[in-house]
Amino acid sequence: MSALYETHRIDWEGIALSINWCPVWLGKDAYYSIAHLELVADNRTRLPVTETGYRSHFVPREDVEALGGPVSYARAWLDDAAKSPEWQAHKSASRQLSLF
């Protein structure tokens, strides 16, 4: 039996991405409620949680539900990671035009 995913499309700071969410990745009869969340940026654009534009994340289902579901969880995760000096430097560099 394969896991069932739902897909949500969002725009985060001008980056279009899909959030693929499987709340019962281990199956409904599993002892632990491990869920699977995937972030996939269009054109594999870099995100603050991944340089490749793809991130697979296993997480307790309750953690995602506590933040209001997969979309709210993903936005909170991206917003928090975007505070890092590395992401701020990336944003700054991508705004500047390069002559070379």
Characterization of this structure:
With 100 residues, the protein is α+β, with helices and mostly antiparallel strands. The protein has three helices and four strands. The chain has one domain (6-95). It is elongated and about 55 Å long. The N and C termini lie far apart (52 Å). The mean pLDDT is 90.
**What is Rg?**
15 Å
Question: Mean pLDDT score, rounded?
Answer: 90
Specify the biggest β-sheet: 4 strands, antiparallel
Number of domains: 1
Shape: elongated
| Series of secondary-structure elements, N-terminal to C-terminal | EEEEHHH
Range of strand content: 25-35%
Number of alpha- plus pi-helical segments: 3
Share of helical residues: 25-40%
Task: List low-pLDDT spans.
Answer: none
Query: What structural class is derived from the secondary structure elements?
Result: alpha+beta
